[in-house]
Amino acid sequence: MSLFDQATNLFDMFVSNDQSEEQKTLANRAGLSSSDFSKVAALGLPAILQGINRNTNDKAGNEDFNSALKQHEDVDQYQSIKQLSSEVDPQDGDNILGHIFGNKDGVTNRISNTVGLSSSDVKKVLVLLAPIVMKYFADRKKEKNLDNTGVQQETGSILGQLSNSVKNYSKNNSNSFDMGGILGGLFGNDSSKGTTDTKQEDDGLLDNVLDMFK
User: Fold this and answer.
1) How far is it, in rounded angstroms, from Cα 102 to Cα 189?
2) Whether the model pTM is above 0.85
């Protein structure tokens, strides 16, 4: 049985519910308040899933992603998501971000500038979320016996479901923190932007995250 019983509970658990034990655990590990953790996760989680979806739409990227999922199955290693949150490896998360994003520092810096936290604080959140997302997809792959094509379809499906969660959260929690201001700054002019294709792709990825909140 998968640790994750609902497709949308990644967002619900780590962003919407600031009372969840899992969110508190990760926030404490990142050295942040639950509120600040949520600000980063609200943008970082969709960005991670967008990056995964982008990579799985490419044949080579899809094969690499499926190979990585095999390393994150460990179905019997964790008894709960809280345990996973307590033991998730940030170094593994850093490696995952390097594969997902062409320019992980660029993505981290833009989220940092938007939420008003340091890049190091943002990174502390992202490196904890990334392995959890991988574990989530590893469980889905094994539970549903998905091949590479199935994994590609699954990532697209989960991204669509996450989009609905993001929109509902944005509508229902406008007073929890300044989501409008956060998102308004995320896609503004950034003098640190480069001109490489990878950099432009990551900027487009973040634009897609903004679209989720409309």
Assistant:
1) 19
2) no
Instruction: Tell the residue number behind the tokens 């896609």, with chain if given.
Output: 187
Q: Are 157 and 20 in contact (CB under 8 A)?
A: no
Q: What is the DSSP string of 55-95?
A: HHTSHHHHHHHHHHHHTT--TTT-SSHHHHHHH--HHHHHH
Closest to 43 (Cα-Cα) out of 109, 132, 131: 109
Q: What is the dihedral of CA 77, 83, 84, 90, to 10 degrees?
A: -120
Q: What is the DSSP letter of 124?
A: H
Tens digits of pLDDT across the chain (214 residues) = 567 765 446 777 788 766 688 899 999 999 999 989 988 998 888 888 888 888 888 888 888 888 888 888 765 578 888 899 999 999 999 999 998 887 888 889 888 988 889 999 999 999 999 999 998 888 888 888 889 898 888 888 887 777 777 767 666 655 444 444 444 444 333 333 333 455 555 555 555 554 544 4
Q: How many CB atoms lie under 10 A from the CB of residue 190? A: 14
Using the Cα atoms of residue 133, residue 88, residue 146 and residue 16 in order, give the sign of their dihedral.
Answer: negative
Can you tell me whether residue 150 is helix, strand or coil? helix
Rounded-to-integer distance, Cα 82 and Cα 176, Å: 24
